[in-house]
Specification:
This protein has ten helices and 13 strands. With 281 residues, it is of the alpha/beta class. The chain has two domains: 160 residues, P-loop containing nucleotide triphosphate hydrolases (Rossmann fold, 3-Layer(aba) Sandwich), CATH 3.40.50.300; 42 residues, no CATH class. The strands form three sheets. Strands 6-7-8-3-9-10 form a six-stranded mixed beta sheet, sandwiched between helices. Helix 3 packs across helix 4. The chain is globular.
């Protein structure tokens, strides 16, 4: 079976600027794959090339074994996308937005009702979209992106600007889609979100992939293993578990019966990026 997404030496140049500078990776069917990096790293440009919105300068991009550049008409029915800019028809009701796109894709109108149920908007389906909260609008955009039952769903910063409750709802929906077999290609600035949702992540820096693996393996390989020690005088001390001097400090505190609690702290994906790219996200 062909990979859901296969990228080989993909490049996009704007004059002397190499927005994407020769990246290669593959995404398996049913995987949640995260593309992470700072602003301008090339994340959105990569999605635009994979979805046919931008033509690569060089390289190859395949969707389900079909060339996404030279055979876009065959790829379009297999994919859809949720971009961070909200582009709904505000004067339409929620159900009208979905039925309109159902017509464009040539699918049954009943698909719109199914999707309203899926994203938890059945009760708001007849309301004008302009009355929706930001979280409701994002869920409606996700519903719209599923109208053609895509094999690969591209999601560019799907929770940016959302309040914590709305962001949690969107993440739960992404996880639900992945469990149902949809391949998700996700970009996000939120490392906790990537850690929670993604099977594997790739870090982009200056248009190049600087690391690609599961979140756990990357954290173990590049993250700083630390622990927070609470002492009897109620001060907290952070120690590095790989540092012999810190290990000796902990042993001294233990012998002096000064330790109340010790909480280990795993490295984060933010730590990984700083270690690899020399800057924070």
């Amino acid at each position: 079976m062909a990979a859901a997404v296969e990228v080989q030496d993909l490049q996009k140049h704007y004059g002397a600027v190499r927005a994407v500078d020769g990246i290669s990776f593959s995404v398996a069917e049913g995987e949640v794959f995260g593309l992470l990096g700072h602003n301008g790293a090339g994340k959105t440009t990569t999605i635009r090339m994979l979805t046919g919105r931008a033509r690569p300068t060089a390289g190859r991009a395949m969707i389900a074994g079909i060339d996404a550049v030279t055979d876009r008409d065959r790829v379009k029915p297999l994919i859809n996308a949720v971009f961070e800019d909200v582009n709904l028809y505000d004067r339409f009701a929620g159900i009208e937005n979905l039925r309109f796109f159902a017509t464009l894709y040539g699918v049954k109108a009943s698909r719109a009702d199914e999707l309203l149920d899926l994203v938890g908007l059945r009760d708001a389906g007849k309301r004008k979209t302009k009355t929706y909260s930001s979280g409701m609008k994002q869920r409606l955009m996700i519903a719209r992106s599923l109208i053609n039952t895509p094999r690969v769903l591209f999601m560019d910063e799907p929770t940016r600007g959302l309040d914590p409750t709305s962001a949690r709802e969107v993440r739960a929906l992404v996880a639900q889609l992945a469990r149902g077999g949809t391949t998700i290609f996700l970009t996000t600035h939120y490392m906790e979100e990537a850690d929670e949702l993604c099977t594997r992540v790739a870090f982009l820096s200056q248009g190049k992939i600087v690391a690609l693996d599961t979140p756990r393996e990357l954290k173990l390989r590049y993250g700083q293993r630390t622990a927070v020690v609470l002492l009897r005088d109620r001060t907290e001390q952070t120690i590095r578990l790989d540092d012999p001097l810190d290990a000796a400090r902990l042993a001294d505190w233990m012998r002096a019966d000064q330790v109340l609690t010790v909480h280990s702290q795993e490295g984060t994906l933010e730590d990984v990026f700083v270690a690899l790219a020399g800057r924070s996200l």
